[in-house]
Amino acid sequence: MESAYLHLTDGTSLQGTAFGYHGEMRGEVVFTTAMTGYEQSLTDPSFANQILVFTYPLVGNYGVAKPQFQDKHLVANFESEKIWANGVVLSSLPKSPFHYQSVTSFANWLTEQKIPGIARIDTRALTIKLRAHGVLAGTISRQKMRPRSFTARYRYTDVSCKKNVSYPAPKPNTPHVALLDCGVKHGIIRQLLHLGIAVTRIPWNVNPLDIGKFDAVVCSNGPGDPKNWVETVAIIKKILTKKIPFLGICLGHQLLSLAIGADTYKLKYGHRGVNQPVQEEKTRKCYITSQNHGYAVLTKTIPRNFDRWFTNLNDGTNEGICNDRAKIWSTQFHPEGEPGPFDTEWVFERLLTA
């Protein structure tokens, strides 16, 4: 099999086996500890511009299912219509994947999506390096010579819809939520619809209150530095003045925090996986959550009129804020799970009781 190389900006070059698309791709090299759900992880828009290292050794073992659409704008079993990660790094690649829903292999899926992969890499050693050094820019290439540049040209806002998309609820006369799309996982939309909430998905730079009346606003997850989403932060500031229920998720949590005057910062290696423990401050209950972020809210900068809702039990970082009187909530983790766990789906019910 043909060789491939993972070149890192610290001077490291790792040789492995090429699979997937025959091409070169650059991105920020990050790792996820998830043991399942690689289809959902790679189709999560929050991974845009990143090369994803899977720490679990059996990625690809159940193949890839056929995308199922609830309608033309909503995928039922993936988190978007395409792979958003720039590349994939594995320790091994199963040759004979099997699952009753599988229609193609992991390698063929990457080829179809034009995503390069590299296998037979010591992902344990690579993860230790990323934890010690912090995330690094990298390039997956079939060329042994190191690239001159590691900069990936990408506009984070490309993950958003370009025009409004409506998802009617199964029953009439139900709550209607505006969803600010900064790269929304389709699992968030599916969860809102499951609760009987009608959803209008709106581009990242449009104020939903300028186009109609809504019962609440949700701001989605998305990629990149939250401080680069200046227009969305300005829109959230305007929304908060209207005293309408608001829920921010992942990037949406960070953008809400910036809108109320808090600060954000880049984590050394981020939180990515489906086994991240958080504690609700008021009840002291612990939940296992799905997470995918490289930035966090600086706890000491959160205004006094907002409570610290959740805290990460691994490193003590903030995982959510709330102002129950103002009906404003946000979580750094993903309450919809996808690929799980689903301990915190109840967070969405706040929109029904607001």
UniProtKB/TrEMBL annotation:
GO terms for biological process: 'de novo' pyrimidine nucleobase biosynthetic process; 'de novo' UMP biosynthetic process; glutamine metabolic process; L-arginine biosynthetic process. It catalyses: hydrogencarbonate + L-glutamine + 2 ATP + H2O = carbamoyl phosphate + L-glutamate + 2 ADP + phosphate + 2 H(+); L-glutamine + H2O = L-glutamate + NH4(+). The active site is at residues 250, 334, 336. Pathway: Amino-acid biosynthesis; L-arginine biosynthesis; carbamoyl phosphate from bicarbonate: step 1/1; Pyrimidine metabolism; UMP biosynthesis via de novo pathway; (S)-dihydroorotate from bicarbonate: step 1/3. The keyword ATP-binding applies. GO terms for molecular function: ATP binding; carbamoyl-phosphate synthase (glutamine-hydrolyzing) activity; glutaminase activity. Residues 2-141 form the Carbamoyl-phosphate synthase small subunit N-terminal domain. Its EC number is 6.3.5.5. It comes from the Bacteria. Keywords: Amino-acid biosynthesis, Arginine biosynthesis, ATP-binding, Glutamine amidotransferase, Ligase, Nucleotide-binding, Pyrimidine biosynthesis. L-glutamine binds at residues 46, 222, 224, 251, 254, 292, 294-295. It is an enzyme of class 6 (ligase). Residues 1-175 are annotated as: CPSase. Pfam families: CPSase_sm_chain (PF00988), GATase (PF00117). Small subunit of the glutamine-dependent carbamoyl phosphate synthetase (CPSase). CPSase catalyzes the formation of carbamoyl phosphate from the ammonia moiety of glutamine, carbonate, and phosphate donated by ATP, constituting the first step of 2 biosynthetic pathways, one leading to arginine and/or urea and the other to pyrimidine nucleotides. The small subunit (glutamine amidotransferase) binds and cleaves glutamine to supply the large subunit with the substrate ammonia. HAMAP family: CPSase_S_chain (MF_01209). Composed of two chains; the small (or glutamine) chain promotes the hydrolysis of glutamine to ammonia, which is used by the large (or ammonia) chain to synthesize carbamoyl phosphate. Tetramer of heterodimers (alpha,beta)4. Belongs to the CarA family. This is Carbamoyl phosphate synthase small chain. It comes from Candidatus Gottesmanbacteria bacterium GW2011_GWA1_43_11. The lineage of its organism: Bacteria, Candidatus Gottesmaniibacteriota. The gene is carA.
